[in-house]
Amino acid sequence: xxxxxxxxxxxxxxxxxxxxxxxxxxxxxxxxxxxxxxxxxxxxxxxxxxxxxxxxxxxxxxxxxxxxxxxxxxxxxxxxxxxxxxxxxxxxxxxxxxxxxxxxxxxxxxxxxxxxxxxxxxxxxxxxxxxxxxxxxxxxxxxxxxxxxxxxxxxxxxxxxxxxxxxxxxxxxxxxxxxxxxxxxxxxxxxxxxxxxxxxxxxxxxxxxxxxxxxxxxxxxxxxxxxxxxxxxxxxxxxxxxxxxxxxxxxxxxxxxxxxxxxxxxxxxxxxxxxxxxxxxxxxxxxxxxxxxxxxxxxxxxx
Amino acid sequence: xxxxxxxxxxxxxxxxxxxxxxxxxxxxxxxxxxxxxxxxxxxxxxxxxxxxxxxxxxxxxxxxxxxxxxxxxxxxxxxxxxxxxxxxxxxxxxxxxxxxxxxxxxxxxxxxxxxxxxxxxxxxxxxxxxxxxxxxxxxxxxxxxxxxxxxxxx
Lengths: 303, 154
What we know:
The structure holds two protein chains of two kinds. Chain A is an alpha/beta fold. Helix content of chain A is 36%, strand content 15%. Chain A is built from nine helices and nine strands. In chain A, strands 7-6-5-8-9 form a five-stranded parallel β-sheet. Chain A has a four-stranded parallel β-sheet with strand order 2-1-3-4, sandwiched between helices. Chain A starts with 13 loop residues before the first helix and ends in a 5-residue tail after the last helix. The mean pLDDT of chain A is 94. Chain B is elongated and about 50 Å long. The mean pLDDT of chain B is 89. Chain B is built from three helices and nine strands; from the N terminus they run H-E-H-E-E-H-E-E-E-E-E-E. Chain B is mainly β. The N and C termini of chain B lie far apart (36 Å). At the A-B interface, helix 4 of A face loops of B.
């Protein structure tokens, strides 16, 4: 197994996270560098994900690398019944790095054990999406100047939100105070709360946004989906409770920034977009810099 | 001394006795240890009265001395089993089952979306709770606990 792979956010130590964030900030200043000249990166998207794929491909292109791969399993040998192992072993021969998104959980971990080149997990089912976490951390670092001792408020679907879980786990290394705002049906699962308690990290749970967001440094919004509710009437009751609009921001801190993993539907009202605190589009752009940093670390490329 | 057991299950001269297997786990123990594949003389029985544990099963394997690694596999199916190493009809060593830190094979991952349930990959788990056996899958990171534990079919 190649130890330069990134499959789960916990593959990085706290020091490594900081190292990658510092590298990302250098790429933000200077995103076009020929560090990947002569290198081929395989972009294997076994399920479609335009946003993540384009972000990765932009990162690679701006570093002067070339890309091979596919954006959908139906256009690959997988359709002929080829196993993941065989697909990875084949691609391993052609490239210097694999970036992979796959609907089956554990697929990236397995690929990282089969391939000789490093594997970067671009999402394995409902399991990990570490590059999203890194871009979220970079955005927080960039806007707050630090990751330490922040008030991090997360809103919406905290039960099924893969990005939320990963972000909470990663930030727990930096002495945060968490505020979780969610309907009862979608509250933060017990396992994560126990983890925080074990680490002595303070968290508070709320079912409404009113009053809670005024002390936040970071407000991380996520979508509350109808499909997640066993009882559609419950969804109807709560669907408008977790919506952020511009008026709500009047009493928030100046350094507050609003993040969202996107796509957003109605949970952030359009009138928020022009507020300087709205940061979700820059967050998406940060994805390119964060991924450039991760790629360079995986390939041991020094600047 | 094994006097009352000798009335029901024949003593072995040299080998391993696994006693206090929960009655309904006998065949899982056989499967976990791969006993159906070896050539040794094996005697086993079930439905014996076991006092505080209800009914129990016993396995006696002649001329095989189970290593700790194999014994610890029993932690998934018969954690309270008692192992006696027999030489010349006498018990020369008593062993207990220790829950290992890692489990390879033996148990299926409970997650239907785990890669181990889609491709020919042996399962691998980290034991995250030794009292109430909880296994964290090395691949998909989900927890398989006692309730959901299924032994891998061969």
